[in-house]
Amino acid sequence: MTDFILRVATFDDLPGLSAVMDAAIGALQAGFLDPAQIEASRAVMGLDRQLIEDGTYFMALIDGTIAGCGGWSKRATLYGGDHSAGLREPRLLDPAHEPARIRAMYTAPAFARRGVGAALLAHCEAAARAAGFSACELMATLSGEPLYLRAGYALIEEIVDARGGAPVPLKRMGKPL
């Protein structure tokens, strides 16, 4: 595993975060989705600024470069960015009865397979546990699914999101903490 620094993301980080997300969507899904599906993914994936506002979105830095980002949420929205139509549900979750959400996990392609995603995921799970949650859920892309399986997540349901113009397969997964 590569040495990196984890820190809370701020609104000043938005340009760098957006660049990492765009690169990850385009490059890391190439072996799983066709070009039309990759482009459609951009309509339903991306940054939810609510995570930054809530202080639950993190960055992994290697030598000052954003190697990855990801967060967790105490809100009901399961996935999607600010621009994702119909996905916003800002209601606060009840930690006694509902799982926290793991959200917007991205690794810069140059840093893929170096432990960045696993470290961000573990950090988010620990933060959710500290906030009183006993489980997490997420919506996995096909390229992200292997990471989540290795981390102990199990499939809850498979969906297809076609709001971006092409059908994008996604997998809702969960894990007790």
Q: Care to describe what's here?
A:
By secondary structure, the chain is of the alpha+beta class. The chain has a single domain (5-79, 87-176), classed as Gcn5-related N-acetyltransferase (GNAT) (Aminopeptidase, 3-Layer(aba) Sandwich). The protein is 29% helix and 28% strand. The protein is built from five helices and seven strands. A seven-stranded mixed sheet has the order 1-2-3-4-5-7-6. Strand 2 and strand 3 form a beta hairpin. It is globular. It starts with a strand and ends with a strand. The model has no long low-confidence stretch (mean pLDDT 95).
Note the main attributes of this structure.
177 residues; alpha+beta; Aminopeptidase; 7-stranded mixed β-sheet; 5 helices; 7 strands; 28% strand
- Largest sheet, spatial ordering of strands: 1-2-3-4-5-7-6
| Helix and strand run | EHHHEEEHEHEE
CATH level 1 name: Alpha Beta
Structural class determined from secondary elements: alpha+beta
Strand tally: 7
The CATH topology name reads Aminopeptidase
Q: What can be said about the biggest beta sheet?
A: 7 strands, mixed
Number of domains: 1
Query: Separation of termini?
Result: 23 Å
Uncertain spans, ≥5 residues at pLDDT below 50? none
